[in-house]
Amino acid sequence: MANLINGKEVSASVKQRVREQTEKLISENGVTPGLAVIIVGDDPASRVYVNSKKKACAEVGFNSFEYALPAETTQEELMTLIEKLNNDPKVNGILCQLPLPKHIDENAVINAIRAEKDVDAFHPFNVGKIMIGDFAFLPCTPAGVMELIDSTGTEISGKNCVVIGRSNIVGKPMAMLLLHRSGTVTICHSKTQNLAEICANADILVAAVGRANFVTADMVKEGAVVIDVGMNRLENGKLCGDVDFEAVEKKASYITPVPGGVGPMTIAMLMQNTLTAAKMQNNIG
Ligand code: NAP
Prior knowledge:
The protein is an alpha/beta fold. It has helices at 7-29, 44-60, 75-86, 106-112, 124-132, 140-151, 171-180, 195-199, 245-248, 262-281; strands spanning 3-4, 34-40, 63-69, 93-96, 160-164, 184-188, 204-207, 225-228, 232-233, 239-240, 254-255. The strands form 3 sheets. Strands 1-11-8-7-5-6 form a 6-stranded parallel sheet. β2 (34-40), α2 and β3 form a beta-alpha-beta unit. α1 runs parallel beside α10, α2 (44-60) crosses α10 (262-281) and α6 crosses α7. The chain is globular and about 50 Å long. The protein starts with a strand and ends with a helix. The chain binds NADP nicotinamide-adenine-dinucleotide phosphate (NAP). Residues 141, 164-167, 169-171, 188-192, 195, 208-211, 229-232, 262-263, 266 line the site of NADP nicotinamide-adenine-dinucleotide phosphate (NAP).
């Protein structure tokens, strides 16, 4: 039976670390990190995420600034706000909650956020830095996964690591972080052949597909570390991951639950990035 990786506990320890460093930054340098969160429209899921981010800011001692804009906000109005925040020294991190309404060009918005305030690490400049392994901002969800793997004491170097999913926000940066730690990485996607066989060879398996019960027990190697990034809403309203948890926990050595696994980590890593941004912008090492 697998050991459960407790994302709530690991995220609490990351936030504690951020809180301690923030207290030091405030007392020694008079700098309070500030995060601006922009939400356009009234998508209920986005609202939940934005509230969680504001709550996390309060927990670690940051200032948070919320900009709730109506769904009919124009591209130009949004760009004007981003420019204002880019130039506001009290704002160290800017996050625009995705998805945006259809009439707004998401890429243009991501590109408009100044790279040093891009705490989601979505800007092409920061994506490039992640690629070459010389980065200040961590891609939040993959970085959270790395913390979870590290919390198990598992050595990544030399291990077969399989990532299912190749999105820009999860799959690709996830593979990069594992590669930087000398994992032997395979990325699977919807066109992959023999996916079950490839997965069954993984010492570390990360599922970021967005399909409930996609990873079944026959796809998992005995003793593997299984990380479930998926967040799927079932018809009965229940939240579940990509992994058939009940069957897979009998084979894995470590497994994350959903909820309570990767989810809480993403926000903790966002706090870490905002702290990094505040230090960088104030030339504090
Ligand atoms: P995405 O952009 O939809 O990407 C999904 C990936 O899964 C794609 O690369 C797709 O392949 C692949 N895929 C889909 N069906 C497949 C199949 N039958 N076989 C193999 N691969 C398949 O999703 P995402 O943004 O990466 O998110 C993935 C999941 O993680 C979602 O459930 C999302 O809600 C969750 N998530 C959780 C957090 C968190 O904080 N816990 C954060 C972000 C995302 P193709 O590229 O070939 O289409």
